[in-house]
Amino acid sequence: MSDAYVPHEFQYSSADHQAGTAVAGMWLFLATEVLFFGGLFLCWIYARTQNLAGFDAGARETELWIGTLNTGILLTSSLVYSTGVAFARIGDNRRLVQCCLGAIGLGLAFLVLKFGLEWSDDFAKHLWPVGPDFKFTGPIAGGARLFYVFYFIGTGLHGVHMVVGVFLVAMIAWRARRGEFSPAYTTPVEVVGMYWSFVDVVWIILYPLIYLIGRS
Question: What is the pLDDT of residues 116-150, one digit of tens each?
């Protein structure tokens, strides 16, 4: 595909101008996401320092093997999608589609493990922090309840971002199947890759907060 066929909207002087604006826009969006999740993590860490016993008790109820497996799944998905970006840069749309499908499969596996299996187990063990049936009682109940408030909020928000990411990667796969990308035009592929990597980074922070700190 020559530069004459690289799509760009009328408000941009060139395809390069449009690509640079798209990347800058994604960086700006991710900056707002950092502020959002950063505030959540800061509150989480502060609350933990005030309720050590309760948070430790809550952490020991989490399924470490699921969290660890999901961490490996997400890191692998980033590697697979990054490989797809490399294929896009050399114009191999077929390989890009394969990498997208691999990343989608791994993303769906993460969601099934986290929400289909682990959340179901959490509810079965009465770890939902709202209501009278909460598992913990006594002096640590307040801290444990607060741990699970952060747990469900944090993993729920991350899950929403994962669903959005899976949809975006599916759109890239669909467009790649139509042959829309070339060495001269890979901006959407790279922008979605930035978002997907950010979602992984959020999980890398959630993983020790949920499963590791206080477990020993």
Answer: 999 999 999 999 999 889 999 999 999 999 999 99
Which residues of the chain fall short of a pLDDT of 50? 1-4, 10, 12
Q: Which residues, in sequence order, are bridge partners of residue 182?
A: 185
Helices 141-177 + 15-50 axis angle, to 10? 160
Residue 107 CA to residue 159 CA, distance in Å, equals: 10
Task: Show the domains of the chain with their CATH numbers.
Answer: 26-212 (1.20.120.80)
Q: What is the pLDDT of residue 184?
A: 84
Distance, CA of 166 to chain centre: 10
> What span, in angstroms and rounded, lies between the C-alpha atoms of 110 and 178?
28
**What is d(CA 211, CA 216) in angstroms, rounded to the nearest whole number?**
10
User: Which pTM does this prediction carry?
Assistant: 0.90
Q: How far, CA to CA in Å, does 145 sit from each of 20, 58, 207, 209, 213?
A: 46, 8, 19, 15, 16
Going by C-alpha positions, the residue among 51, 48, 35, 12 that lies closest to residue 210 is 48
Longest dimension (CA), the chain: 71
- Dihedral through CA 88, CA 90, CA 91, CA 96, nearest 10? -30
